[in-house]
Amino acid sequence: MILSRKWAQDYVSTADISDKDFCDAMTLSGSKVEEFKKEGSELQNIVVARVDSLEKHPDSDHLWVCSVDVGAGENVQIVTGAQNLKPGDIVPAALPGAVVYNRHEHRLEKIKKGKLRGVESNGMLCSFDELGLTQNDFPYAAADGIFVLGEDCDRTLGTDIRTAIGYDDTCVEFEITSNRCDCMSVTGLAREAAATFGREFVLKEPQVAPGHGDVNDFLKVSIAEPEKCYRYSGAVVENVRVKESPRWLRERLRASGVRPISNIVDITNYVMLEYGQPMHAFDLRYLEGGEVNVRNAENGEKITTLDGVERELNDSMLVIADKSKPVAVAGVMGGEYSGIMDDTTTIVFESACFNGVSVRRTAKALGMRTEASSRYEKELDPGATMRALNRALELVQLLDAGDVVNGVVDCFVNPKKPVKVKFDYKWINDFIGISLSEAEQKSILEKLEFTFEGDYVVAPSFRNDIEHIADISEEVARFYGYHNIPNRMLSGVANGKLTPWQKFLRLTGETLLSCGCTEISTFSFISPRAYDKIALPADSPLRDSVKILNPLGEDTSIMRTTALPSMLDILSGNYNHKNEAACLYEIGTVYQPTQPGSLPVEKQMAVVGLYGAGSDYFTLKGIVEKLLERLNTARYDVEPVTDNPTFHPGRAARFTINSAELALLGEVHPAVAENYEIGERVYIAQIDLETAFNNTLPQRTHKPLPKYPAATRDLALVCSRDIPVLTLQREIEAAVGSTLESVKLFDVYEGEQIEEGKKSVAFNIRMRSAERTLTDDEADAAVKRVIKALEKHGVSLRA
Predict the structure, then answer these.
(1) What burial letters (b/e) apply to 103-113, b meaning 16+ CB within 10 Å?
(2) Digit-coded pLDDT (tens) for 708-739
(3) Label partner for 622 (CA 20 to 30 A): which of 160, 252, 380, 795?
(4) Which long-range contacts (CB under 8 A, 24 or more apart) does 633-638 make?
């Protein structure tokens, strides 16, 4: 919201406060100022001057040599090429050293003395665009000539041009939070300024002189959707005289960032800026039957809006319709034939209040956010429609823009009940940490137009952000001054603690960091092409992804079902930036779609990726095993993976628990690595953390040091090359029984002394009893049970 300080003077006197002090104080009281700018501050040494004489340039057919009076009896000679001047014209003169806008190169330019075709020129006569203005600011000015000041300007010679044409306002830009729609207006910010500086806030009721006729003879209004349209107020103006607005109105619109157009359009914009209440003017000719019906659109119904675009509507959108068709999208934009034209004679002023959620959804669906919709979506005050309507009619009479028809049509179906909050000044003091008396707190609130009824404070109708005594406390705190609130320790006791799942995730990260991995964080949305890069089969269920309705682009159009592409992207970036080695991890989310209209299933995954010196399959497997050990995950099975095209066949494995995949790891297939432009072996793993969490073993307990010695036996076995070592280890564990302390593989051999298709594996078995020393016979018996159990797998002792 841009505030004109000159305009705000109508409601609160702050002329004695500097721009900087004004902005600082407003920010401290809760109305944050983004920046302020003085209009025309770049212009220098440009004054009001009078052309006393013009003579043809002796050496040019199109140049004129002018004698110009710049005030105080000083005349200067200026050469110009403008053809719209005559003696006696009052014009802007840029004297030597002046700074003007270069209209051709869109930059500031300094004016110097010089010669044009041998004739001395001591400055330059300016057009309006060399002052940074447009034709809209001064419609009567010549578009291609020198700006000749009209009677609406100060024509005193020697006056600074900015003062003479009203181009010296201070424009203050505020950042208005979404809950303070009342501050999206000049009066709202003026009210805040009055409370901030302790000045009187003056808001006069608009005065409309008696007109003619009866509005009910011209206009009928009905509201079919009272939940979406709280109030609709309308008035009629006949004999409309469309022309430019006076300079004071154009100045205020320009300072507020709005382009002046014509008196009727400018009035609607002026009232919107002044009161924060959007308005619209309909040409009565195009309101069939003189009817206004506020209803939902029909599915497939179409309207061409003021911007010339045909838009298709649906039955969730609120429209303003006449007897047969929609003429405006309620709260967003009028229809093509609803605007004011040069031959418009009778208009209907609309001042309405619509449901904010409905307006926002409609504006978003149609892809058109306007000044009106940006205000309506914040829930405006239904009580403001009549004041805004009367102000528009008052301006019509003031500007002689038409003849007002007596009366207004006002449909107010569900008046809003005032918000009342139990007032407790002691609670407010304790809550903020201050010590104000009840009277002092009431004084602050009354400045903001709060009232009191017994033990209750009543919020004004325009403050829709007030719901609880904490909201009242905020009002007291910001005008007491946040910087004046003393520091104090937080009260109360914090009992927050991590959940078991949060502890689990934290342990995961700490473990992977201790293994030498560096954490990364990637986006959860990826490109569909990422599945092709990891060679995912066309019929893979992982290709069924959640699609984003409004993606930033194709590369971010789906939610990932696997985090492998994200890790490979980062590894590729490191490799191609000449990072010799990398060991990275991420704890990220993958998304599995469910039924249409339902939210996807979100799963947490830990992904580890590495390449470079010291990186191989066994390094990766060791990291994964260490992680699962620290997470105290239940015993898992390991099986080779040969059919996953992302991984090198024979160099990948899958960890499972009860047939559920716990982890997938291995060397990335060379073709996939080439897709990511990685020129060496890459290793990657993905661990399903939810499966690991759901299969966590009971908490480990301390065991005392053993009192009795262990019995150890080494077994060298010959088995089929295809049997996983883990299968043999599981059989050994089951066969030895409760006395088993550990089983460790210490050798695998394939060579000339072993039969083709076979391998030799050697295990160290450690047994121990907590109650006594095991005998050799007991240890040998355990070994025999192991050999017997392994026979079913075709395993024999190595000779």
Answers:
(1) eeeeeebebee
(2) 999 999 999 999 988 888 889 989 999 999 99
(3) 795
(4) 633/657, 633/662, 633/692, 633/695, 633/696, 633/697, 634/695, 634/696, 634/697, 636/662, 636/663, 636/695, 637/726, 638/724, 638/726
Query: Can you say how many angstroms the Cα of residue 659 is from the centroid of all Cα atoms in its chain?
Result: 44
The Cα–Cα gap between 159 and 154 comes to 8
Pick from 370, 291, 301, 306: which is nearest to 337 by CA? 306
- The encoded tokens of residue 193 equal 């300024």
Contact between residue 711 and residue 767 where contact means Cβ atoms under 8 Å apart: yes
Cα distance between residue 322 and residue 345, in whole Å: 18
Name the strand (E) or helix (H) holding 389: helix 385-398
What are the start-end ranges of the H helices in 631-768? 670-675, 689-694, 725-736
Cα 253 to Cα 267: distance, rounded to the nearest angstrom: 10
Distance CA 420, CA 417 (A): 9
Amino acid making up residue 367:
G
Rounded Cα–Cα distance for residues 501 and 505 (Å): 6
User: Tokens representing 714?
Assistant: 């080494």
Q: Which DSSP category does 214 fall into?
A: -
Instruction: Give 732-766 pLDDT, tens digit per residue.
Output: 999 999 999 999 999 999 988 888 889 999 999 99
Rounded to two decimals, the pTM is 0.66
What mean pLDDT comes out for the span 455-480? 92
